[in-house]
Specification:
This protein is mainly alpha-helical and about 160 residues long. The protein contains six helices and two strands, in the order βααααβαα. The chain has a two-stranded antiparallel ribbon. The protein is globular, with a radius of gyration of 17 Å.
């Protein structure tokens, strides 16, 4: 574990699970041929390309969650379905390459933002609790859906 001189925990060490799940997500994406990435049906009507944009959106939103936490604001209820629908509509015309770039850019921005924070262990733990559903759990959920879709279509 990396620690600051004052004993506070530096990020991203408490977020190793985020990066491990990110690696699994990328490994799963690498199994999808580009020509199949826009096929619907991975999750109802969503394609792999749509899920790439979806993950990009929630990585970006994770920064908002951290900013709220650092400002001492409680995280209120959100209409995540409306947010998903709005983002999916906004990204519908993006190419696979554009969605990938968005995903990579937003993930890098999240890691950079987290890397700038120095938090005590309690706050680092609260931060992780706040973003785990948007990051590592989310990557693993969608990687599993893609893997199942690939298995169904191979059978």
């Amino acid at each position: 574990m990396v620690e600051a001189n004052d004993g506070n925990q530096l990020l991203p060490p408490p977020l190793d699970r985020v990066e491990q799940a990110w690696g699994r997500w990328l490994d799963t994406l690498a199994r999808v041929p580009d020509e199949r990435a826009a096929e619907p049906g991975v999750t109802e009507a969503w394609s792999v390309k749509d899920l790439i944009g979806h993950v990009a959106f929630w990585d970006e939103y994770a920064i908002v969650r951290v900013q709220e936490l650092l400002a001492g604001k409680p995280h209120g209820n959100i209409d995540w379905q409306q947010m998903n629908d709005a983002d999916a509509a906004a990204g519908a015309d993006l190419t696979l390459a554009e969605q990938r770039l968005r995903m990579e850019t937003n993930h890098a921005a999240l890691l950079a933002f987290l890397g700038e924070q120095t938090l005590d262990s309690e706050l680092a733990s609260r931060l992780y609790e706040r973003i785990t559903g948007d990051t590592d759990e989310h990557y693993d959920d969608h990687a599993g859906q893609i893997a199942a879709w690939l298995a169904r279509s191979a059978g």
